[in-house]
Amino acid sequence: MENSEIATKMTEALEKAGGIDKSVKFDFNGDGSVWAQGTSAEVSDKDADCVINVDKADFISLAKGEMDPMMAFMSGKLKVTGDMSVAMGLQSIFSNM
Fold first, then answer.
1. Which of 18, 29, 36, 87 has the most crowded Cβ, counting Cβ within 10 A?
2. pLDDT at residue 22 above 80?
3. Nearest CA among 10, 4, 2, 8 for reference residue 62
4. CA 34, CA 51: separation in Å to the nearest integer?
5. Confidence of residue 81 (pLDDT cuts 50, 70, 90)
């Protein structure tokens, strides 16, 4: 899946969920990144309140509900820097992707 497709699906999910107040960047560990705030997401490496480092394949598994976000975090597959409360609030977005 291309990052542009991820950004499109994330925008749709953000709109359904009512958006997020702070910014978040999903850094795909050398495979680009997707930045989101409000009700839109874009392929970008902008600074964000919260950065989530995750391999793209693991992100796709998370988005499909095949991987539990807490287990991914506990096992080190997902690393969060910055505002942890932003990451904790993303559950509603993943459930809409």
1. 36
2. yes
3. 10
4. 10
5. very high
C-alpha torsion sign, points 29, 67, 10, 39: negative
Q: What is the pTM of this model?
A: 0.91
* Residue entry with tokens 């874009």: 42
Q: Which of 23, 29, 80 is nearest to 49 (CA)?
A: 23
Residues contacting 77, CB < 8 A, separation 6+:
54, 55, 58, 67
The whole-angstrom separation of Cα 44 and Cα 52 is 14
| DSSP H helical ranges for the chain | 3-17, 56-63, 69-74, 84-88, 91-94
- The amino acid sitting at 61 is S
